[in-house]
Design goal:
The structure holds two protein chains of two kinds.
Chain A lengths: L3 H27 L1 H4 L5 H6 L8 E7 L5 E4 L2 E7 L4 E7 L11 E8 L5 E10 L14
Parallel strand pairs in A: 4-6
Antiparallel strand pairs in A: 1-3, 1-5, 2-3, 3-4, 5-6
Chain B lengths: L1 H5 L4 H33 L13 H28 L2 H32 L8 H20 L5 H15 L2 H11 L9 E2 L2 E2 L3 H4 L1 H29 L3 H7 L2
Antiparallel strand pairs in B: 1-2
Classes of the chains: A alpha+beta, B mainly alpha.
Chain lengths: 138, 243
């Protein structure tokens, strides 16, 4: 048995916590676009970029799209399986960067708005962990 | 219900229990920690993509679990203290803060070290990392609040309220990778199974268990310290301390 004044206190705290949760929910909903770390190619297509704003573009590196352009310069296509965007980058790549794997690129759109000129490339790791299999030689 | 639980949580009984269990828990915890550290560093195979650096997982994930669980523990104790005015919950709350702070710091530091070779950066303001950073600030804030009031009762009440409000951040941390676009990967272990190969997975419960034991031993010593600071001068406590 819980005494009545204690029960009232429980109701008060639960109500209090629910309101704090609701406030947090509304704040986070309002800031949703700012909390997202990157835009997907579909987001970019849907947004009108007038200036050469810096933003982060994220998605998967499309299989077979990675090309070496000479020196450290590479180009690849970022896809979210709905839209695609060609990315040009010159610089050092993280270890986990490869085709069919997640990527987040910082940079801006080219003047024609069809290419993304990246200044920094981050590799996104997926949640899978697999051991290295020792290859048995026959 | 209250009566049955309350009789086990009298400060003097808790003090005795803590002084009995703190040292054994620490020794067993350290032995398991050292053995499983050796095991995850030398015996487990490397990861296909991340190679050797993935081994940071075995300190990063248990610390992350503990940093969030300890915060929930603070909030639950704060709730019990506010409703039933049980002194022991306030003592538990006070004793657990510093441990949670240490684990949150370990999560952020180990994550940064892992992030540089795999992602290509030490730090990025994505939702998971930012919300964990906020958790670190919450712990620091609680520690600052502890020494901000002259009366113990006021301190306990404020700590309880603040820790209950802060608990809102825990589901945000947990679900941040699902709700927003983040650089941090999604959860590997979900209700539908584990995306970590079973061969490697065994390291996680070992490390988690050892860290739980070690943090329990520190928690127990903190409790003893708290009880002494509050009631050490009463005759009942003197008898216990002097045997």
């Amino acid at each position: 048995m819980i005494r009545k004044n204690r029960l009232n206190k429980i109701y008060l705290i639960v109500f209090f916590l629910l309101s704090v949760g609701l406030i947090a929910f509304f704040i986070l909903r309002a800031l949703e676009k700012n909390i997202d770390l990157y835009l997907t190619p579909s987001d970019v297509k849907a947004t009108d970029f007038n200036q050469l704003d810096d933003f982060k573009l994220g998605g998967m590196v499309k299989a077979g799209s990675l090309k070496k352009l000479g020196g450290l310069e590479i180009s690849f296509i970022v896809t979210d399986f709905k839209s695609e965007m060609l990315v040009i980058y010159e610089g050092v790549l993280p270890n986990l960067f490869k085709e069919n794997s997640g990527v987040v690129a910082t940079g801006s759109l080219s003047a024609e708005q069809n290419q993304f000129i990246a200044t920094e490339i981050l590799a996104k790791h997926d949640e899978n962990y697999m051991p290295v299999k020792i290859e048995v030689q026959n | 219900m209250y009566k049955y639980v309350a009789k086990y949580f009298i400060p003097s009984k808790v003090y005795k229990f803590c002084s009995l269990t703190a040292m054994p828990a620490f020794i067993i915890g350290m032995i398991i920690f050292l053995l499983s550290s050796y095991f995850v560093i030398y015996s487990l195979p490397a990861d296909v993509e991340q190679q050797e650096i993935y081994r940071i997982l075995f300190i990063h994930v248990p610390s992350a679990i503990l940093s969030e669980l300890i915060y929930l523990f603070l909030a639950v104790n704060g709730f019990i203290y506010l409703v039933w005015r049980t002194k022991i919950s306030a003592i538990f709350l006070n004793s657990a803060i510093s441990i949670g702070l240490v684990f949150t710091a370990i999560v952020l530091i180990s994550g940064s070290i892992w992030g540089k070779p795999t992602w290509g950066t030490y730090w990025v303001w994505d939702a998971r990392i930012t919300s964990t950073f906020i958790l670190l600030i919450q712990y620091i804030g609680l520690i600052a609040l502890r020494s901000s009031f002259s009366s113990k009762q006021t301190t306990d009440q404020i700590l309880s309220i603040v820790s209950i409000i802060g608990a809102v951040n825990i589901p945000i941390i947990k679900f941040s990778v699902d709700w927003w676009n983040t650089l941090h990967q999604n959860a590997s272990i979900t209700t539908s199974g584990s995306a970590i190969d079973t061969e490697m997975l065994i390291g996680l419960p070992l490390m988690l268990g050892s860290l739980l034991l070690i943090s329990f031993s520190i928690f127990a010593r903190n409790i003893q310290f708290e009880i002494l600071a509050r009631t050490g001068k009463t005759t009942a406590m003197r008898e216990i301390i002097n045997g």
